[in-house]
Amino acid sequence: MKVAALQMVSAPELAPNLQVARGLLEQAAEAGAELAVLPEYFCLLGRKDTDKLALQEAPGQGPIQDFLARAARELGLWVVGGTLPLSTASPERVSNSSLVWSPQGECVARYDKIHLFCFDNGGERYDESRVLTAGSRPCSFELPSRDGEVWRIGLSVCYDLRFAELYRLYAAQGATLLLVPSAFTHTTGSAHWETLLRARAIENLAYVLAPAQGGLHDNGRRTWGHSMLVDPWGRVQAQRPEGAGLVLGELDMGQLRQCRQQLPALTHRVL
Description:
Nitrilase/N-carbamoyl-D-aminoacid amidohydrolase; 271 residues; 7-stranded mixed β-sheet; single chain
């Protein structure tokens, strides 16, 4: 199955981000991808944390969700909408939600980011808990590919990558592909991004597809990029350092089964 990770350098306004996203989704479809995954905050990287509150949508309705459903339907793609802000019980907090649309334009899965990023090195300060409500439920879904294979796909977002137990749970559920739409900072990404992605692939003997924000944004923030596809043996199959564009790759169920047969580590778990 051919897949695409879509890398962006999102702006503080919605309209140009949707335009870029649509163009990348069209490129993915033209390249033969069945699954296209946008990065975290693809719709907006605001000038301040609270900017995302103005874009919040109720689940199942709103221009961003309509945009993604329409793109999936018109392009015949499975689309994972990176993340977008969904309303919660408090108007001052949103969930950072990753939604999945089938090629029929139906929303089939929702994952709310569980682990909220917090970082302070004296120069850079981030605390997502100021405006986000943490999710509590892992979420996976099944994707039947055109060749008849069924992929079990585990959803996660960015900072979740540091918490191996989430991905181990997905592996126990039979996950064969792990998605990590992200907006890693340049500081943390340069230190840990590739190492963590490869570790999650190796320890779970699964493919990992990680679309990211990558570049210098209008708000002054610099994200690491390096969107990539990692195979179940921990090898980086494709990546893009910076700038908007596609990372294309193919998933091979036969290769995955061979890896798990040769090294049956998932059957040796005792905890």
